[in-house]
Design goal:
- The protein is an alpha+beta fold.
- The protein folds into three domains: 47 residues, Uridine Diphospho-n-acetylenolpyruvylglucosamine Reductase, domain 2 (2-Layer Sandwich), CATH 3.30.43.10; 116 residues, Uridine Diphospho-n-acetylenolpyruvylglucosamine Reductase, domain 3 (2-Layer Sandwich), CATH 3.30.465.10; 90 residues, Enolase-like, domain 1.
- It has ten helices and 14 strands.
- The strands form four sheets. A five-stranded antiparallel beta sheet has the order 4-5-10-6-7.
- Strand 13 and strand 14 form a beta hairpin.
- The longest helix has 19 residues.
- The N and C termini lie far apart (50 Å).
- The relative contact order is 0.12.
- The model has no long low-confidence stretch (mean pLDDT 95).
- This is Carbon monoxide dehydrogenase.
- Keywords: FAD, Flavoprotein, Oxidoreductase, Plasmid.
- One of its GO terms (molecular function) is FAD binding.
């Protein structure tokens, strides 16, 4: 199949993009790397009347250090994060996560903001940035608002974005020198979306002990506290934390999520 007919605009500023996205007379969608939206257009799962290409907006391509955090523009590609040409406050976490996203061809085009806005539960940035305690900055015609990642992902392909808003920036807090990180995902082959993702972070300077179970057919499940790090990552414990998720009622899925998180924790504790 091919996409339905649509108009195309490529604004040079964020204000111009927001003006187009606020139109109510047509169905409007922003587009960046198009690694998810492109196939949806061709399958006619998405049928916008106007596509607003935001990739030429300079401020959406910036990466800069702001005190104890890193500000990443929504149009920064996975490949750029993998290559590390920026002041990485995460001590290697961002490049290592970017490197396991799909294939290099996808990473050359796909963007961090597009991945978050698409909100696939198996997406690496959805889970990794939740574990890191990142915030996202949402821009609209009435101004900007900052939303924690734990509140931004609402459900499967659902976010806190309101009509006319765009995800403009991601703020990633710096990790201390004592921080330890683990990340593991279960895939049948390289490049596939994960069937279960585990992320684990200990950062004594922030008093943070966090585990995240991802790809759970819902928003990432955040488990704070030292219990899972101290031998508490069992199937029974995971069933309790995943209560309400389809994974909790499926023995195979439950075991897969338990293994993914156990292996992420093992990376932290080794």
């Amino acid at each position: 199949m091919k996409a339905v007919d649509f108009d195309y605009a490529q604004p040079a500023t964020l204000d111009a993009a927001l003006e187009l996205l606020s139109r109510e007379d047509v169905m409007v969608r922003p587009v960046a790397g198009s690694q998810s939206l492109g196939p949806m257009l061709n399958l006619r799962l998405a049928q916008p009347e106007l596509l607003v290409d935001i990739t030429r907006i300079p401020e959406l391509q910036e990466i800069r250090r702001e005190g104890d955090r890193l500000a990443i523009g929504t149009c920064v590609t996975h490949a750029r994060l993998e290559d590390g040409d920026y002041p990485d406050v995460t001590r290697g976490v961002l490049p290592s996560v970017a490197a396991v996203i799909a294939y290099r061809a996808v990473r050359n085009r796909g963007t961090i903001g597009g991945s978050l806005a698409h909100a696939d539960p198996a997406a690496d940035w959805v889970n990794a940035l939740t574990a890191l305690g990142a915030d996202v900055v949402l821009a609209g015609r009435d101004g900007r608002r900052t939303v924690p990642m734990t509140d931004f992902i609402v459900g499967v392909f659902e976010t806190a974005l309101q009509p006319g808003e765009i995800l403009a920036e991601i703020h990633v807090p710096a990790l201390s020198n004592q921080a330890r990180w683990g990340y593991y995902k279960v895939c049948r082959k390289t490049g596939e979306f994960s069937h279960a993702t585990g992320a684990a972070l200990i950062d004594p300077a922030r008093g943070l002990w966090r585990c995240v179970a991802g790809a759970t057919s819902g928003k990432p499940v955040v488990i704070d506290g030292p219990a899972l790090f101290e031998g508490g990552c069992t199937e029974a414990a995971m069933a309790a934390h995943l209560a309400g998720s389809p994974a909790a009622a499926d023995p195979i899925a439950l075991r897969t999520h338990t293994v993914a998180l156990k292996r992420a924790i093992a990376q932290v504790m080794s």
